[in-house]
Structures are given as structure tokens and as C-alpha cells.
Amino acid sequence: MARDYYATLGVDKNATDQELKRAYRKLARELHPDVNPDEAAQARFRDISTAYEVLSDPEKRRIVDLGGDPLSSGGGGGGFGAGFGGGLGDVFEAFFGGGGGAGRGPRGRVQPGADALLRTKLTLAECATGVSKHVTVETAILCDACTGSGTNGDSKPVRCETCGGAGEVQSVQRSFLGQVMTSRPCPTCRGAGETIPDPCRKCDGDGRVRSRRDITVKVPAGVAGGMRIRLAAQGEVGPGGGPAGDLYVEVIEQPHEVFVRDGEDLHCTIRVPMIDAALGTAVTIDTIIDGPKEITIEPGTQPGAVTVLRGHGMPKLRTGTRGDVHAHLEVVVPSKLDHKETKLLRDLKDLRDRDVAEVVSTQSQHSGGLFSRLREAFSGR
Predict the structure, then answer these.
(1) Is the residue at 267 inside a domain?
(2) Which of 72-86, 167-181, 299-313 has the highest mean pLDDT?
(3) What are phi and psi of 31, to 5 degrees?
(4) What is the pTM of this model?
(5) Pair (296, 318) in one structural domain
(6) Which of 140, 248, 268, 359 has a CB 3.0–4.6 Å from the CB of 228, allowing a cystine?
């Protein structure tokens, strides 16, 4: 079913060009994303921009008045190649000037805007808890002097004299197939089919101006480096005051001095003196979200052991579940001993004369030991 472009703009079928323009301007002032950030308003703005683009084009409006839709797949224009998605018609037009089918026509001045991208640095704590970040972005915004029309005062665009409003110019060349007609966008109106003799003084007819503005980005808890936050309709306003694209804010996560992040888990290294590893001790670490937490190091802890604090890691995005903190224990053997320390260790050795250095079988090595890791590395080749 063809769309009712007249109802979209709130005008009747006999509306003049000036009435169409006046209705579009009135709605654009209310619905433009720079004025009304509501998503429903943004969708409505896109609809009225499309309706104005169609009805302000004489050929497209003629198709609408005949009950068709110029933006549908068939285009409502019939003609040669209509049943083949336009492909055969394009080939016929390229070689023989269209052969009775409808041309591509002007593209219209109102075009959708491009997306924009900026990057912001976040600490690990900001990624963990979420933050409202103030950033400065420079994009094209709607010209407030002409409300996107590009014209000065009550002036209006006129049909391009170079292309006669077609938006393209044609040239004929001779080839072995005979005369070949090719088309290209009109250099005067750049494919719009119309020019602005009295352009807006502020935007020079573009309908938009460059502006730097500060916006607030709500960063959810659990984001990680490389993720992008999408802000709908906060990007570049399109030519002719067309709907704005989206703004993407990419997160750059800064390294932490203690923790290394692996998804939702956090890893840190705790250096434990040999005596504490043997006798057992407790160490307090400052977690990112929950503050200081005590880690118990059991007596007889071996080098490379890992102690896990369950549920004290990073939050998982959109679920609220938490990862873990993995404390990797590095047992430190003293390299220099004074006379008294040496004597005490020798006394301990005499008491534990059963502890002797020995070469063990690879089958009896504990999982996770040095040779176990080497064996896995070599066997994986």
C-alpha cells in the first residue's frame, strides 16, 4: 500500500509548494533531534523529511497523485525493466538513453547525516562502577537561522537551469554499439535538481553549521576497552537539515597499577615471604568496588598458588553478576642472610632432615608446576 505523504505533512492534495514548505518547517522545528531528543520524535522527523522530499519533487509527486509510491521497490513508474529490480532498465538507459523508462531523477536536498565517533579514556574503577562522562563533540547541527531550508528569509529554491530539475546531465558518445548515452550528477546543483539563488547567510545554503558542544555520556557498569556506546541522533545533521546520524563513544580502558582484567575477572600478584608462606598469614588488598578485603594465605602455601575472592571482580554488562579476584602468590626466597638468620635456618634444616632435594618423575609433578606447564607447551606443538 502506498504511503500517504500528504497526511504525514498534514496538508491536502492541492497544497502549493509554499504550503508544503511551510508545513515541513513547522513540524521540523518541533521534531528535529536537536530540539526533541525523544526517539518517537526522531522517527517522525525522518518521516516528514521523506514526505517533503517526495512531494517537493514534481515527478515523484505525480507518481503519488497517480496512487503509486516513488520510493517503493517498483517506483510506481512502470516502464521497461520494472519487473527486474531496475537492473535491466539501468543497462538499457546507459546504452540507449532510457528507452522510455523513468530516469533516476534528482536525489533531493534533504539527506540523512553521517555517524560520528569519538573516544574517551576511563579508569578501571570507572569501568567497574559506571560513570557519567562529560565529553566535547564537534559536529554539524541544524542551522537555526533557516531551520535547515538553506534559504534566506522567505526565498525558496528554484529549478536548476543546467539540468532542468533532473538532477543529472547526459552526454552522447559514439562507440561500436552506436551512440551511447551516459548520465552523471549535475555539477551545478550536485544532483539536487534545484539551486538556491538567495542562500542563508549563516550556513551558505547547506542547512547546517559546524558547532562544538558538550554532552553527557552515561557509561554503564561493566564496559571494557573497545566497546562503543551509541547515542542516537547525536551525530552529523544531514545536508538540507536531514536527520542526524548517531554518535558512537568508544571506550579506552587505562591500565591499572595492581589489577589486570580478563573479562569479568581481575588478577593480581601478591609477593609472600618464604616464612609467611610456610607459617601462613593474611594480606589485605583494596578491591575496585568493595574496598579492602582480606586474603588468607594458608600454612604451607606453594609458589604459584592462586587464592580466589568470589564475586569481587568486575560486573558483567547488563546482568549485574560479578567476576572473581584471582590473587597469584609469589613466594619470595631471601637472597641475603645475616649470621643469625643463617644459623636459624640451619637449625630448621637439621630438624627437618627428611626434606632433601630430589629429581622427581614427570608423572608425580603437581598440576600447574613449572615442568607441567612446559610439558603442556611442548605436547601442544
Answers:
(1) yes
(2) 299-313
(3) -110, -10
(4) 0.63
(5) yes
(6) 248
